[in-house]
Amino acid sequence: MQFKVPQNIDMQDKILGPLTMVQFIYAVIGGGICYAIYSTIPQPFSYVLVLPIALFVLALIFLKINERPFLDFLVSLAYFMTTPKSRMWHHDANSNLSVEIYQPKITQQNIAPTKQFTHEQIADFAKRVDQGQK
């Protein structure tokens, strides 16, 4: 008996065309805000307010930066802007710190033995290799 294994379980379901439920909610709320501003404020001034809001809502719905939603980018940006950029080390805060620099110890096991060959031994070895002997 074979069963179908679900694939892409981390993807949200599309409910209306290419929009997921969250994107659809963003579109409804953003569209409602834009409509309210457009209908209450006189025409030339309402365009100035509606355009940035509409662009922001469209970015929330469709824009992805490094395959991540735009809202994640905004949250990361807000975290970056609010956290301190430099770290201070207070020397007197913890005086029992010690720094030890690692230096490997040289022992006899680490040193490979060297052999000294004479010129005659090398010439004899070269002759045997050329002749194919051991």
What does this structure look like?
This protein has 134 residues and is mostly helical. Helices cover 49% and strands 7% of the residues. It has a domain at 17-81. It contains four helices and four strands, in the order ββααββαα. The model has no long low-confidence stretch (mean pLDDT 85).
Summary tags:
134 residues; mainly alpha; two-stranded antiparallel ribbon; 4 strands
Shape: elongated
Largest sheet: 2 strands, antiparallel
* N-end to C-end Cα span: 65 Å
- The helix/strand class is mainly alpha
Oligomer state equals single chain
Question: Share of helix among residues?
Answer: 40-55%
Taking all residues together, what is the mean pLDDT?
85
The number of distinct β-strands equals 4
Beta-strand residue percentage: 5-15%
Widest sheet, order of strands: 1-2
Uncertain segments: none
Secondary-structure element series: EEHHEEHH
Distinct helical segment count: 4
Work out the radius of gyration. 36 Å
Question: What can be said about this structure in brief?
Answer:
The protein is mainly α.
What is the topology?
Layout: E1 14-16, E2 19-20, H1 21-40, H2 43-62, E3 64-65, E4 68-69, H3 70-82, H4 119-131
Antiparallel strand pairs: 1-2, 3-4
Helix pairs in contact: 1-2
